[in-house]
Amino acid sequence: MSFDFTSRGLMDIRHLRFQRVWLCIGILLLLLVLVGSVIPIPAPVRSIMLHDKVAHTLAYAGLMGWFAQIFRHDLTRLILVVGLVMMGVGIEFLQGMTGSRQFDVLDMVANTSGVVLAWGLAYTWVGNTLVWVEGVFCRTILRA
Known about the structure:
single chain, 144 residues, 0% strand
C-alpha cells in the first residue's frame, strides 16, 4: 500500500510508458459509456438486447479495470470506485427523465457489480495488463 497522499502520489502513473495514450483511450471509453447510456436505443437493437445487465456489468468493469491499471494508488482507486458508482446511479436517474430510456435499479446494481469486480481484479495479475502490453509492444514492434 502506498502512503504518499500528495497529489503527485495519488496521480502517479510513471509505471506506464504510454501514459497519454492510455489516458486518452480511457477518456474515450468513458465518453462512449456516457453517450451510449443516454442516446435512444433503436428498436432493432432493443429487441436483441437479452443480456442488458451483463452489458452494464462489463461496461463498468471495463472502465474501472482500465483506470485502475493507470492509477495504482489505493486511495485513487477508491475514488474511482465511488466516482464510477455515482456515474452509474446518476445516468440511471437521467435515463428516467428521458422519454426514450427508463430508470432501472437493477442496472445500477449491475454497474456497481462491474466496478467492484474490476476493483478486486486490479489487485491480481489482471491489473498489470497494460504494463504487459507495453512490454510486448516495446520488445516486438519497437525493436523491429
